[in-house]
Amino acid sequence: MIAKSVSGLGKLVGQIACLDRVEATTLDRIRHEALTVPDDRAWVAEYGEFQSGGWSTLSLINDSGDPRDVRITDCSPRATTMLEQMPVTREFLLSLGFRFMWARLARLSAHSFLWEHRDYQELDSSARVRLHVPLVTNASAVLVTAGTRVRLRAGRIWLLRPTHAHGAGNLLGPDRYHLLLDCYLDDRLTEAVDNAWLEADDAEPMPSATSEELTRRFDQALSLAELGYPSTAEKHLLRLFYERALPEGHVYDLIAELYARLGDTEAAQRWRTNKRTMLGEVAPEVLA
Length: 288
Fold this sequence. Notes:
With 288 residues, the chain is α+β, with helices and mostly antiparallel strands.
């Protein structure tokens, strides 16, 4: 186990870390409930602007009780009709003793991405964090934050502070299933957060992009757009976030520059707006 003070991981633990472990039998039973959801129509592809496609969720705790209500907000949470059919998962959530805002199952298909973004921008300033409980994952499924790829191992509860810029990718598959728990920060959760940790092989720092690499990638995207494949060109640049450590929002700047070079001022402005939508203003530290 590597403590927060270890060089190179201290800052990262401030953004993502392991909070606790999940007993193997409990994890297996939760996984079984998640993979045998009674109504597959409950999965909703929401937040389309934040993803490549292939990411869908269903709610277990929200403000309406409807599992298809997945756009999170502050509320007085209640169990959805889906959670009522998942007794092991319900008991596990109760056992944590945290103050939930929302809880979802999330499915990320192969070759799919959640683009660089921040969460909670539309909510009030209450202190809150997100917990990930990986149920099904693979070696190519990563969460990227602070220029680092983190592989969220199953069997753990992972802490994420999503007010920091981050993204997720599932390069090769199979589908990744996570239990996502948005929680208000109270004394019990604060104590758990204070003891969070990372192990050395959890995190893989990415190399910084050289100017030559960025120029080559930009020129490739430009050629794709000129050939009539603008969506492919956009994704060619967006995927840089998962390969190289870059200044925050730089992939969005590159796409805006791409369209400016093509003389498409409307598309260039749209991507400048996208950057503000995805990242907003620099958020204050949560739990500095």
